[in-house]
Each structure stands twice: as structure tokens, then as C-alpha cells.
């Protein structure tokens, strides 16, 4: 394979910069890989401007031999792999730098020749070499990434909420809401999100595009979105502490429906009061949201929790630990304890036996000189799954994903890896 392809890495470039033509071809390949319509030159330029702001690194596999007559030119990569770095909230307000992997595509005519394996293995090794202890992605299919050591660490669900008279919240409003001109979110959205990010285990720092999406400045089709409406929530001190960006789906949609585009609330009150607002919109009988948490306070605040129809829940964030010692020592532990973990790593990046000793919230992690019998044996992907407290080690033991050598060690791990509130990630990338 190595003779047929050359792997190139370069930084995202905006229009007018030297690297723009390469970035443009790379993006064209990504759009093709995800079955999108060919993007207009304006859409490409706008997308690349946001990618440049994220300082994304583009990796592409290029054909080294002459391309077949009439086929796409050699400048268009046959495989793509994008990365950028943001922080991950790992519980109790701690943020860990994380390598975000995105835009993974391999052209159908070049698939199953090891291009994904090569790009993934090389990229994870380079990120580790840079001192990054964690990588993350969201997956198109559940069967691809476990083999590279990724494990599911958070979930989300689509909700359809009945907002007719059936919707009654047991909540006394403490703040207020009002409608805003959508472009205000260009400045406000990152500020409010930053508060949510620091509060929510599993949250990933957002890319530049989010504020543009929420404000209607750049929709998924590359154009402004005039359908976007925005409501702000003000706390008792008058400061904005939440917002919802939403769209009415039209009079032909039955029941009349509002679709949430982005829902960001930095306090419990803001969350419930923004729901109260959505439920109060006249002539609307249903509100849908595709990125709702599984463990949702709304369920428990409703007089009739069956207002929420939610048959569609799915994995969201997949994590890959690149450095066990660094990742485990970065966490806060709510319970003191000692665990000996035997960690198996299919890529050989960070496997071994580790003693995790947590005391007063801090942890020391060492590789014992003479590893005896561990308390738990687990794959690096299972360790990633329990890392944010969003997946229960006892359940993974029941599934055979964790082997418990000391009785009760999985339950002990559950307590040690617990986080202060439900794990949830509002950032798709
Ligand atoms: C983070 C993201 O961007 S998620 C989006 C992922 N991309 C897509 O879904 C777009 C459509 N699919 C594709 O472009 C390609 O099929 C890819 C990227 C999924 C796979 O690329 P390939 O170069 O064919 O993968 P490669 O040949 O390196 O295979 C590596 C391993 O993964 C396995 N694999 C690859 N694709 C899949 C799949 N869809 N389902 C299950 N296993 C898979 C291969 O069998 C191989 O296994 P092994 O090495 O353990 O024997």
C-alpha cells in the first residue's frame, strides 16, 4: 500500500492564503465521502474560514501513481482525516486538552486497503508524542472505532415534547426570557457555552461554526438561515445565562412543530425556564430536540413525564485514552480508594498495569515494579467508557468487557469515577 499513496498533512487555509487550493480539494473529498451535494465555491470558502479559525489539521492520502483517465485528479485525496484540539470537561470543572478527530472518509474505490488504519494509528501516535492524553470523535457507525481503542463515553437522545396543555412544569420562574435578534449570538453564544462547558462533564469546547449556526449566519447548507429565531434567558441578576436557537417547521408540519437548533443553559433555572418558554409558544404543539441528555431534568420537572416521546437514544462521544497515567491523574476522584488496573491496548500506545491511588480527590498513578494480580482487567476502550462517569463499570463487567479479579472492584470503580452531574456533550464535530 505504501507505494500507492502518499500521506500529506497541512493546516486549514482561508481564501487568499497559499494553502487554499489544497484545502479546497480536501474539503471536496470530505463532502463526497459523506454523500453531500457538491459545495458551492462560497460554501467552501465559508467552511474553510471556520476551519482555519479552529486551526484544523487536514490529513489526506494522495495517489502516487497516474490516476485513471477521466477520474478525479491526483490533487483530490482518496482519503481524508481532520483534527483539531479543544478541551474536554472530565468532571468537577477539570478540563483536559483533547485531540478531536473528524471528517474521516475513504473513497469507495480505495476502501479496505488500510488507509483509515494508517491515518488513525499515525495521528494518535503523533498526538501522544505532543503530550495530549485523550482523543475523541463521534462515529458514523458503531463498529469502526473500538478496534482503535475508542469507547463510548456519552449518549444523547432525540426528544419530541408535547407542548399542548399537557405540558406542566413544577417550577417557579426565578429569571426571565425574551426574544433577541439572532446575530446577538455571534458574541453571546460562546460566552454562555463557556459556562456550560465548565459545568458539564463530557462537554467538548466548541468549534467556530457553532456560533454561526446558532445565530443563523451559516446554516448546514452554507447559506444564512432566515428561519432561525433566538430566545435569551436572563438570571435574577439580569445577565444572560442561557439561550435557545430554534426554527418553526412550517404550517404543513402536523402537529405544528418547533425544532431546537441549539439549547445552551448555564443554570438549572435557565434550562427549565427556556423549556417553559418553548412550551408557551402559541400555535405550536410540539418541540423537538435531537441533542437532549438521557438523564434529563426535564423528565423530573414535568407533572406528566410522558409528554416526552423519546424512542431514539444513541452513543455520542467516543474517547480514546492516549496516556493512562496522565489521563487518570488529571481526574478528580470523589471517593478515596486504590485500584490495580490491567489495561490492554490494541495499538500498543499506553497498555500495562497501573495502580490508581486516589486520596482527597487527587490521584497518583504508577506502574508497579512487580505487577501481581490486578483488581480489574479491561481494554483501553472500556477504560475510556468509564472515564467520564457516564458508563457504569458494573454493567461493563456484566457484559464481559471488564474482568473483575477482586470482588466488588467494579462497584468501587463506579464510586471513584463518579462525576458531579450527568455526563453530556453538546458539541458535535
Ligand atoms: C470520526 C468520523 O469522521 S466518523 C465518519 C467515518 N466515515 C464514514 O462513515 C464515511 C464512509 N466510510 C468510509 O469512508 C470508510 O469506509 C471508512 C473510513 C469507514 C473505513 O476506511 P478504510 O480505509 O476502508 O478502513 P481500513 O481499510 O483502514 O480498515 C481498518 C479496519 O476497520 C475495519 N472497518 C473499516 N470500515 C468499517 C466499517 N464501516 N464497519 C466495520 N469495520 C470497518 C476494517 O475491516 C479494518 O479492520 P481490521 O484492520 O481490524 O481488519
TrEMBL record:
InterPro entries associated with the record: Acetyltransf_17, Acetyltransferase_Eis, Acyl_CoA_acyltransferase, Eis_dom, NAcTrfase_Eis, SCP2_sterol-bd_dom_sf
Its domain of life reads: Bacteria
Task: Write down the Gene3D superfamilies for this protein, in alphabetical order.
Answer: 3.40.630.30, SCP2 sterol-binding domain
Q: Which Pfam families match?
A: Acetyltransf_17, Acetyltransf_9, SCP2_2
Keyword tRNA-binding applies: no
Q: Which UniProt keywords apply?
A: Acyltransferase, Transferase
- Residues of the Eis-like acetyltransferase domain: 202-321
Q: Name one GO molecular function term.
A: aminoglycoside N-acetyltransferase activity
Domain Enhanced intracellular survival protein per the UniProt entry, residue ranges:
324-425
One GO term (biological process): aminoglycoside antibiotic catabolic process
Say yes or no: keyword Transferase present: yes
Sequence positions that bind acetyl-CoA: 104-106, 112-117, 140-141
What are the positions of the active site? 145, 429
Family under the similarity heading: Belongs to the acetyltransferase Eis family.
PANTHER family noted in UniProt: N-ACETYLTRANSFERASE EIS
The subunit field of the Swiss-Prot or TrEMBL record says:
Homohexamer; trimer of dimers.
List the NCBIfam families hit by this protein, alphabetically: PRK01346.1-6
Q: What is this protein called?
A: GNAT family N-acetyltransferase
